[in-house]
Specification:
Blueprint: E1 20-26, E2 31-37, H1 53-60, E3 78-83, H2 93-99, E4 109-111, E5 123-127, H3 129-136
Parallel strand pairs: 1-5
Antiparallel strand pairs: 1-2, 3-4, 3-5
The chain binds FE2/S2 (inorganic) cluster.
The site of FE2/S2 (inorganic) cluster (FES) has 14 residues, from loops.
Length: about 140
């Protein structure tokens, strides 16, 4: 089972029932990766909520930092959902509080480990480069 933080209110998520596509824009490498999400294969990994952007990134072989192990306690998994945000679960207060600690917030910002698309739309995700650098340089 994917990681869950027992100390926070559970996010209300809706898992997809049909295949959909996530496009990852990786700012650090300027790579674009398109991945087809297959609901039958969820969860792809053990970090983040089942079906979250972080979970799907694992399946797509896309690296997103996740210092706390995907339990809504670090904000290093900050991503921006530039398309399909309406198809994702609403951020909980705990997610919003944690997001407030991330740099470069936009209205499209979410925690990758807490954001679960329901598959009714294709999704486009930007992974900011500075997030990785911040962790690598130990700031
Ligand atoms: S991995 Fe720590 S908040 Fe998402």
């Amino acid at each position: 089972m994917a990681g869950v933080n027992p100390y926070i209110k559970a996010a209300k998520t809706e898992l997809p029932v049909k295949k959909f596509t996530i496009t990852f824009n990786i700012e650090e490498t300027k790579e674009v990766k398109v991945f087809e999400v297959d609901p039958a294969k969820l969860p792809y990994g053990r970090t983040g909520l089942e079906g979250s952007i972080l979970d799907i990134a694992y399946g797509a072989n896309v690296e997103i930092d996740h210092s706390c192990g995907g339990v809504c306690a670090c904000a290093t998994c900050h991503v921006q959902i530039t398309k399909g945000l309406e198809s994702c679960n609403k951020a909980t207060e705990d997610e919003e509080d944690m997001l407030d600690t991330a740099r470069g917030l936009t209205t499209e910002s979410r925690l990758g480990c807490q954001c679960v698309p329901n598959g009714t739309q294709d999704v486009v995700v930007t992974i900011p480069a500075w997030n990785k650098n911040m962790v690598k340089e130990g700031h």
